[in-house]
Design brief:
- The chain is built from 13 helices and no strands.
- The chain is mainly alpha-helical.
- Helix 6 (about 110-135) packs across helix 12 (about 340-365) and helix 8 runs antiparallel to helix 11.
Length: about 400
């Protein structure tokens, strides 16, 4: 069994295999509506006859909920120290109500509030899981698997909700989602009844002994800025990929199939990272992810045929998928309390929430070619900030080693 339950408090059990699976399942179910947003967006237009801009506002409300929920989760976990099980239960309850309101509501404001609440609930669940996973002695592998749940939500949610829309319509689809969330409450007894970020101890997985690591006062704020900048623009470029394919003259069906394949490539990338685990330094994963984004974005500047476009799309999804688990695991090592990893998750979700709007402004003002150039520059700045933090951490580590050697010599 992975992880061991202390005799003194069963609710404070280390993060074991059952708990990790529970976190993955609960978050996957809560994130299905976000992963399937493209088809739900179309259903709002087709079934409820909403204007495109209104349906877009409803979709934006859900992504905005991710950013707001990340901030809320950070406060509730690190400042208020609410129990992990309590937060998970409340988030699932809010999400269930949000799906029911979405199914029954006809007015725009209740629909937008419901989708905002759905996104917030998913983000809080995500934060609870990240807070516990980041306290592992080796967080890279479980973080890679957990982040992959967001891509799996799209890979499962799109075909699943396509089927439910055909069978039961939009209202039936939201009610079906509410039923799945209700079933997910069966996982609640597995989730610890203790505050997620309260205890300083770090626990292990895969048979590892629990270890304690003191928090290290490293200047990680430049890395948080790097994360926010990166996901601000990679989220913006990602939203425009379908438009880019159409501008290049490709058929919509082929582009949609390619983007779906891209989601599976992203999922496969996180699974591969989980399999590799600590056998490769995380700094190389972050470097590869940035380079992949830069190369793929540069390739979109001059598309030379379908193979060129397809290659750029798949490489872009690979880079986009590798960065979250790698950068969050670095933050988790820097700060074993889990606070910095939660801050990184907030930066990612804020970037994804506002990125499409910011990028659309850049496209509207300066054109698509300039916007791609700006994105490449931002990815380069993000990589520079990351390497700067890593270099500083290396100098401090060498200084600590020298100080210890000097102490022994004296």
């Amino acid at each position: 069994m992975i992880g061991r339950r202390p005799a003194e408090d069963a609710g404070d059990a280390p993060l074991g295999l059952k708990l990790f699976i529970a976190f993955c399942c609960v978050y996957l179910i809560a994130d299905l509506s976000i992963g399937a947003m493209p088809i739900l967006f179309g259903a709002f237009v087709d079934e409820r006859h909403l204007a495109l801009e209104v349906a877009g506002g409803i979709a934006t409300a859900e992504t905005t909920g991710l950013a707001v929920g990340s901030l809320l989760g950070f406060v509730l976990i690190t400042r208020v120290s609410i129990a992990a099980r309590t937060l998970a239960a409340a988030s699932l309850a809010v999400s269930i109500v949000a799906q029911i309101v979405s199914a029954m509501g006809v007015d725009i404001l209740p629909l937008m509030v419901a989708r905002l609440a759905s996104g917030m609930a998913a983000a809080v669940l995500q934060g609870v899981a990240i807070a516990w996973i980041s306290r592992l002695s080796s967080p890279q592998r479980p973080l890679a698997i957990f982040v992959g749940m967001a891509f799996l939500a799209g890979a499962i949610g799109i075909p699943l909700f396509s089927w439910t829309l055909e069978c039961w319509g939009l209202a039936g689809t939201f009610l079906f989602h509410a039923g799945l969330l209700l079933a997910a409450m069966a996982c609640l007894p597995i989730i610890p009844a203790a505050p997620a970020a309260k205890k300083p101890a770090v626990v292990g997985m895969a048979g590892e002994e629990p270890t304690a690591r003191p928090a290290k006062g490293r200047a990680h704020w430049p890395m948080l800025v790097a994360i926010a900048l990166n996901f601000l623009f990679n989220g913006g470029v990602w939203v425009y990929l379908e438009r880019v394919g159409q501008w290049a003259g490709f058929e919509v069906a082929r582009i949609a199939a390619l983007l779906g394949l891209g989601m599976f490539v992203a999922l496969a990338s996180t699974v591969a990272l989980a399999i590799i685990g600590s056998r490769i330094r995380t700094v190389w994963v972050v470097l590869f992810g940035h380079v992949a984004l830069i190369i793929a974005t540069a390739a979109l500047l001059s598309i030379d045929g379908w193979a060129w476009f397809a290659g750029a799309i798949l490489v872009f999804h690979m880079g986009m998928a590798l960065l979250p688990p790698a950068m969050l695991s670095i933050l988790a090592v820097i700060d074993p309390s889990g606070r910095s990893a939660l801050q990184g998750m907030v930066a990612i979700n804020i970037g994804y929430a506002v990125g499409p709007q910011v990028y659309s402004w850049v496209v509207a003002l300066y054109g698509f070619t300039v916007s791609l150039g700006v994105a490449i520059a931002v990815f380069g700045i993000s990589l520079f900030l990351f390497l700067w933090v890593q270099a500083g951490a290396g100098r401090r580590r060498d200084a600590n080693i020298d100080a210890k050697r000097l102490g022994r010599a004296q």
